[in-house]
Structure formats: structure tokens, C-alpha cells
Design brief:
Blueprint: E1 4-6, E2 12-14, H1 16-19, E3 25-36, E4 39-44, E5 61-63, E6 66-72, E7 79-82, E8 97-102, H2 104-126, E9 130-135, E10 142-146, H3 157-176, E11 181-185, E12 191-195, E13 199-202, E14 214-218, E15 223-225, E16 228-232, E17 234-237
Antiparallel strand pairs: 1-2, 3-4, 3-8, 4-7, 5-6, 5-8, 6-7, 9-10, 10-16, 11-12, 12-13, 14-17, 15-16
Length: 240
């Protein structure tokens, strides 16, 4: 199933970024133009750009050779391309043919971090913890949980290291098993991302093809503050 949004004029925008994480460019056309805070924006039919959201950064992208920043326009529901700070979006017209492309290295970095975040959430849930929040930004990636019942292991440093070791072992096992990562849609277009049968969560982010694509997944010793369990992590995409 393809996720899409419709303009007031009936034009449909396809969320191409959800269909293929690794697609780096596409020929498409402008379906809507407008302004945000006095700055022009343009929306294209086949949207290759992931906007910031769900704990994931926005893609770095270009329309033809002009760098743009993708954002979700609340009024229209479209992902629109706006001029970056200090840049200038050229005049574009509805129906105009353009080439959209992304920085694929940045994309796979974000996809690896987002997928690794789901994996950390999955193994944290296996400990009986409940998700509170997540952040998949490079250098800031973390998952925060709470334990519905007192977890004695978290009371001291040795216990926290023991709990972290259990998370590391579970993460390493899932990566070694190269569990497939895929998305399915439920009614009303609700997108669910699966780590095989290990984990399933509603998500509009980009992801790797399977957990074997993850490399250098590192979990420092978890921290506990005011009842919140913070599991920081880092990850990269495996070179092929």
C-alpha cells in the first residue's frame, strides 16, 4: 500500500520515502505551491523527502540543483520543500517537471538509527519496561522507559550494568539473526513497522531492510533518574 495525501485541487502526493529507503532520486512534478511565513514552498507528486518527525531528522534534499528542507505543512497535510536558511527557492509552477534527490548517506544513517531505536525499545520491553519517549537523532539517540514495578537491578551501578548487558546481548542476537524489517498498513492507512515477530509499532520513519544492516550498535550503561530509565545508543549502516 502506498501512503498518500491529496491537495485541495485533487492532486495526490505519494510518500515515496516510505516505499524505498534507498531510492536517492526521482523525476516528478510540482503539484502545489504556497508560502509559509512569507517564504515560498513547493510540493511534488512523488515526495522523496522525509520531514522531521517521530524522533527522526529531516532528509537533506534538492529539487533540481537547489537545496531544500522538507517540512510537514499543517494546513495542507503535504510534505513541502522550503528554502533553507540563507538559501533561495526559485519560482516553481504547478505541473513543472523537476528532479528530486536526497543525500542517501544521511538517509541511511537516519534509517539505521531509527531501526536501532525500535530494536532497543523491543529488548527494553522484554525487560518488562514501558516506553516513555524516543529520540533517533545522530549523537542524541536514546530510548526512555519506566518500570511499572520496582526493578531491583536498577538500584546500583552493578545492577544497572547487569541490566545493560542483558539489553546488549538481546540486541546482538537479533542482529546476528538478521531479522527482516518491513512495514504493513492497517485500516485508515495506519503504518506499522515490524522487526519480524520481535516488535511492531506505528511509525512513519525510514528503516533498513533487515537488522543485519545495522553496524556498530553501542549501548553505554543505562541511567536512571526520577524513575525514568534512559538507554542511550549509537548505530550506523553496515557497508556493503
Amino acid at each position: 500500500m502506498v501512503h498518500s495525501s491529496q491537495t485541495a485541487q485533487g492532486a495526490v502526493q505519494v510518500a515515496t520515502y516510505l516505499d524505498d529507503t534507498y531510492l536517492d532520486q526521482v523525476e516528478t512534478q510540482v503539484i502545489a505551491v504556497g508560502e509559509r511565513g512569507g517564504a515560498p514552498w513547493a510540493a511534488v507528486e512523488h515526495c522523496l523527502f522525509h520531514p522531521q518527525g517521530g524522533g527522526q531528522p529531516a532528509d537533506r534534499g534538492w529539487l533540481d540543483d537547489v537545496e531544500v528542507v522538507p517540512v510537514r505543512d499543517r494546513e495542507s497535510g503535504l510534505v513541502v520543500a522550503v528554502e533553507p536558511k540563507g538559501g533561495k527557492l526559485p519560482p516553481l509552477a504547478v505541473g513543472q517537471e523537476v528532479r528530486a534527490r536526497i543525500d542517501v548517506q544521511a538517509r541511511v544513517t537516519h534509517a539505521a538509527l531509527h531501526t536501532a531505536g525500535h530494536l532497543v525499545e523491543a529488548v527494553g520491553r522484554l525487560q518488562g519496561w514501558e516506553l516513555l519517549s524516543n529520540n533517533h537523532f545522530p549523537g542524541q539517540a536514546r530510548i526512555e522507559f519506566q518500570a511499572p514495578h520496582e526493578d531491583a537491578r536498577l538500584a546500583d551501578g552493578e545492577g544497572r550494568e547487569e541490566a545493560t548487558a542483558a539489553l546488549r546481548d538481546a540486541v546482538a542476537a537479533a542482529i546476528a539473526d538478521d531479522l527482516p524489517v518491513f512495514a504493513r498498513y492497517e485500516g485508515e492507512g495506519r503504518r506499522l513497522v515490524h522487526l519480524d515477530t520481535l516488535h511492531c509499532v506505528p511509525c512513519g520513519g525510514t528503516h533498513v531492510r533487515s537488522l543485519g544492516d545495522l553496524a556498530e550498535v553501542v549501548l553505554p550503561t543505562l541511567k536512571v533518574k526520577k524513575g525514568r530509565i534512559r538507554v542511550s545508543y549509537s548505530a550506523s549502516h553496515r557497508s556493503h
